[in-house]
Amino acid sequence: MGMVLRSFGGAGEVTGSKHLVTVDGGARILLDCGMFQGRRKETDVKNRELPFDPAKLDAVVLSHGHFDHSGNLPTLVKHGYEGNIHCTSASRDIANLVLMDSAHIMAKDYEWMLKKMPDKEAVPPVFDERDVLKVMDHFVTLGWHRRFLLPGGVEGELFNSGHILGSSLVKLTRKNAGGGTTGVLFTGDVGRPGMPIIPPPESFPDVDYLICESTYGNRKHDPIADARTQLAAVIRETAARGGKIIIPSFAIGRTQELIFFLHLLSDAKEIPELDIFVDSPMAVNATGIFRIHPECYGESIRKAFLDHHDNPFGFERLTYITDVEKSKKLNDRKDPCIIISGSGMCEGGRILHHLKNNIADPRNTVLVVGFMAQNTLGRAIADRRPSVKIFGDSYPLRAKVKILNTFSGHADYEDLTRFVGAMDLQRLRRAYLVHGESDALESMKTRLLERGVREVVVVAPGVDYPLE
Ligand SMILES: [Zn+2]
After folding, report:
1. How close is the Cα of 53 to the center of ligand 1, in Å?
2. 67: CA distance to ligand 1 center in Å?
3. pLDDT of 324-344, one tens digit each?
4. DSSP of 354-413, one letter per residue?
5. Could you tell me if 175 and 253 lie in one domain?
6. Which residue among 30, 81, 328, 358 is least crowded, i.e. fewest CB within 10 A of its CB?
7. What is the 69 CA–ligand 1 centroid distance (Å)?
8. Are residues 401 and 414 in the same domain?
9. 420 with 352, same domain?
10. Do 185 and 143 fall into the same domain?
11. CA 68 / ligand 1 centre spacing (Å)
């Protein structure tokens, strides 16, 4: 019998991560419970109707707080899940913020639809704030390298995956019929070495079976070391023109990385003395979470700030704005400044006001620091369209657009192949590939086989795969 893997999401795609490990046909351990993302009706149905009975699950292990890994935990609990959710305390805090934000947005969207489009069928929220509160009661948190007991005689252990604050590789170990042990490693999402705040991913522990993400299985990133220099250059050039730097940014992770770099640049006087505003309530809350989890920091931020009793996320020129009136006041500023705001893909939020007010002025710069999905305003800007639509009106895009690609939080194929290649490949019996589009998965498969992994399988949803 042994352990068996079956994926219900994040297999052949990047959202909705849900991987079920069944032990001897009995104990059921779910790795992640992410939300499928997308606007189509089928996606909504997939999120509401789980393809397994949550009441029959025995444990959940959460790799990290991102929405595509944690976003559907409330549905699990709503439908009868009674067990623990194991993760690091930073992951719990990020999941709480992400889930609360999502409940809030779904509620607002629903209200808006009912009011403004009464003839259209409004989609009720998948869960609300009360459901999120119930989820919070299920969390059991532990630091990396603390072993914990899971049902079915399985031992769990988390390792730093270097992707976002608190993100983890999940290792499951169990005694097998032959008297030895069988080890399974689920990577969650893997980061890359040299990221500004969090430590580099740990070496993958040796195991018999690997369940590996493949997001960038066919992509290679620019070196991360350039980020600080490139950022400084953009700021100096824009300030010299008398312009503002507008940065659409994701609230969790990217914004804190920008703040960290701006703090360093400011201290080193490598940028002119500009006022810097983080104008996003969500980013302010997320930064609070970063502040209370120094145990998840890497060496560079510890050396630069903690050792000097300094707060990496606060400095003289930096102002956090939550108040709407103060946010609006930024429109009146004429002098150069830096405004970091959300949403990251410019699909909503305060960034829209800042873009509307600044995008037509050739002195300004819009700095793109994250992935912009197709059909978003962020993508239209990144593609440098001559004019863009904001709140239904067209605006000429005269501001400079600079793209900084070095901030990605995902390992590329070189990183992933190196991490897997450093494992004991004699012991590794099979690698299962998840969390990627089909090109990325196939490319990753070829690379791992070339690197000497004996067997590599691209996981299809709903199919059983042996783990011993
Ligand atoms: Zn992630």
Report:
1. 25
2. 8
3. 999 999 999 999 999 999 999
4. HHHHHTT-TT-EEEE-S---TTSHHHHHHTT-SEEEETTEEEE--SEEEE-GGG--S-BH
5. no
6. 328
7. 7
8. no
9. no
10. yes
11. 7
